Hints:
CATH superfamily of the largest domain: Crotonobetainyl-coa:carnitine coa-transferase, domain 1
CATH topology of the largest domain: Rossmann fold
Oligomer: single chain
Largest sheet: 6 strands, parallel
Strand content: 5-15%
Number of strands: 11
Structural class: alpha/beta
Amino acid sequence: MAAPKMLDGIRIVDLTSVVFGPYATEIMADLGADVIKVEGPTGDQFRHAGRPRNTPGMGPCTLNLNKGKRSLAVDLKTDAGKAALTAQLAEADVFIHNVRGRAIERLGFGYDAVRAIRPDIIYVHCVGFGSGGAYADLQAYDDVIQAATGTATLLPRADGNPAPRYLPSLIADKVAGLHGAYAILAAIVHKLRFGGGQFVEVPMFETFAHFMAQEHLFGGVLVPPLEPTGYPRQIDPARQPFPTADGHISLVPYTDAALCKVFALLDADDLLHDVRFATPRDRAANISQAYGEIARRTPMRSTAEWARLFAEHQIPAMPVRDLADLTTDPHLVEVGLFQQRTHPTEGDYLHLQAPVRFSVGSCETGPAPTIGQDNVALGAPAPTWP
Length: 386
């Protein structure tokens, strides 16, 4: 007998695009919700990131971001498209979208209008900037949010190059998506316990500022501040992967005891007689110089030798691998994070399994749909590619 799914019976109508909203609903689909992806006739624009093997709109990113969902492709500027969305909303538990407020009102699917269709709807609005603030009506993408939150100034703090730079990941989108996922779950729990739906706003700017400020607000937490912003351990220029005889290794001697043990493993016990490292206070004050001393010694062994030695002595360390090697990482292979499957139209691909595990409950999902694949099943006309 198949394991039950956590959100079995929960229907989510998803009018989001790109990554923020679709990442939130990917998690919902992993947990077993019936996610109906509502998109235009040409599909969500992120479907076209990368080269599809066979089908337009089936780029590599969509194969996981939209796995386990159903696709309803309609033109919401037409009466037929609006009727198709209305029919889905009448049966929905959750409606999530990232259309700006004025535009969704013009389409006829603002909160009050949707509540008239489904009185207990959980209505989730994914926005760039929260309502009530100076930026409320502005558009936002990941780069914009990295700039606005000061994230683009972190690399300059670490490497001395004054040019602001983005972290090369859609990190703000994905962090906001995680906030969106827990917001949906919290609203569902509230509805089950107390009844009734509600309006939920998930702003990317505020969620990512909240995320980054946990450590990087640092001295700015106190009023007035005693230290500058920026968590020193993270922006220390010397806190980087250490060179080895054949590559690099990440090594984190987080405690004083661990640092002393590392000195011993490096055959550098004499450093404990150096005035810079004589006491725990000295070692903490001169941690950047300690990193420098470590970096001068790690090239004497290979990455694999250091990894084995540090593991034997319970020192947190991992080889620096290339991004392209992630799918063959032995741990990830053994836990099954990447599973080779065959998509009905796109052939073999790597399916990203949900990373969380439950002792009771399945996170198994099916393949990502093609654009409008489920139109007929959902009572709408079959789509035609423009």
